[in-house]
Design brief:
Blueprint: E1 7-11, E2 24-28, E3 35-37, H1 47-60, H2 62-88, H3 95-111, H4 116-128
Antiparallel strand pairs: 1-2, 2-3
Helix pairs in contact: 2-3, 2-4
């Protein structure tokens, strides 16, 4: 794993206010003229604050996708359980057919604005019926 940072925190005199306290901004390592973050134009009060904020912003993008993936995986296992149940009841010939039909219904539900969690709840309800 590469631990080399792609950014540096530097002092930003152009962001300092009348009280002359230093302000900091985050820039690319290879091109210091490219500002990655400057606290919406106000500058950070400390180097530590700039590091913390930028790392949070940089890593924040991956967090929701992990949650969505867990929800999707959970939904897939619920879909499979429901598909097996439908095959056992004789409504479909194969699990694959049942899963395709369930997927089509879920796509419609997602288009209607339902969340993965709401859909998972509906699937659980159908399985226990």
């Amino acid at each position: 794993m590469n631990n080399k940072q792609d950014y540096v925190v530097i002092r930003a005199p152009e962001l300092e206010t009348d009280d002359y306290r230093p302000r900091y901004k985050v820039v690319r390592t290879d091109n210091e003229s490219e500002v990655l973050d400057n606290a919406q134009g106000w500058g950070y009060k400390s180097r530590e604050a700039a590091h913390k904020a930028y790392n949070f912003k940089k890593n924040k993008k991956s967090l929701p996708s992990k949650k969505r993936k867990r929800q999707r995986d959970k939904r897939k296992s619920l879909e499979y359980k429901l598909a097996k149940k439908l095959v056992e009841e004789g409504k479909y010939a194969t699990v694959k057919e049942a899963e395709a039909a369930i997927d089509d219904g879920i796509v419609d539900e997602l288009k209607d604005g339902k969340t993965q969690a709401q859909i998972n709840q509906q699937l659980r309800k159908l399985i226990t019926e």
